[in-house]
């Protein structure tokens, strides 16, 4: 059976929608003072799941209700790639050219978490750990890169699970 609709165009559409949603949500978190709140941060993954489901539903509705596992997985990963690219390029531009105060906020939160989660660490050990973290992870280049990588890793799991759940093979396909 020949594909009746472009999976790429659907993936791009929902990838752009998800990317813009993630950008808006990150502003909401910043202005609501929720940066560092793990629950609020993890809530963004619900947007990933919803966007993946909507991507698959639209593809299936325009493809006679069918979607193979491979098609769903590939389309889900591509959609999440577009979203991750858009939102993390925006983060890079924002942190480097608009407002770099977010980096210091994340550093402060990281230091506070190190102190509260590791009460046996000395001040010297905390300073050493923070020095490493600041140098290699908490800067305006690495935060967006780490965000992209984490989005893709989580996206892999989402695309895999939802592709398995939502797949429906065409019995007439060879």
Count of alpha and pi helical runs? 6
Give the strand content.
under 5%
What is the CA-CA span between the terminal residues?
A: 8 Å
- Sheet of most strands: none
Count all strands and give the number: 0
Give the integer mean of the pLDDT values. Answer: 87
Helix content range of the residues, please?
over 70%
Class based on secondary structure composition and strand pairing: mainly alpha
Rg, nearest Å: 20 Å
Q: What is the H/E string?
A: HHHHHH
In short:
This protein has 6 helices and no strands. By secondary structure, the chain is mainly α.
Folded structure, characterized:
The protein is 78% helix and 0% strand. The relative contact order is 0.17. The chain has a domain at 7-100 and 140-166. The protein is elongated and about 65 Å long. The N and C termini lie close together (8 Å). Helix 2 packs across helix 3. With 174 residues, the chain is mostly helical. It has six helices and no strands. The chain has helices at 7-31, 38-61, 69-98, 101-117, 123-136, 142-166.
């Amino acid at each position: 059976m020949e594909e009746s609709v472009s999976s790429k165009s659907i993936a791009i559409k929902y990838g752009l929608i998800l990317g813009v949603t993630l950008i808006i949500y990150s502003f909401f978190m910043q202005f609501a003072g929720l940066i560092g709140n793990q629950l609020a941060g993890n809530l963004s993954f619900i947007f990933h799941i919803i966007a993946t489901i909507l991507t698959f539903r639209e593809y299936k509705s325009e493809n006679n209700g069918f979607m193979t596992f491979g098609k769903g997985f590939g389309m889900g990963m591509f959609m999440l790639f577009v979203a991750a690219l858009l939102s993390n390029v925006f983060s890079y531009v924002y942190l480097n050219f608009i407002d770099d105060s977010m980096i210091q906020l994340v550093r402060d939160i990281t230091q506070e978490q190190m102190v509260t989660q590791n009460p046996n660490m000395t001040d010297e050990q905390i300073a050493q750990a923070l020095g490493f973290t600041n140098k290699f992870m908490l800067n305006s280049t690495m935060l967006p890169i780490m965000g992209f990588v984490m989005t893709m890793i989580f996206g892999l799991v989402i695309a895999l699970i939802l592709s398995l759940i939502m797949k429906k093979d065409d019995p007439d396909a060879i």
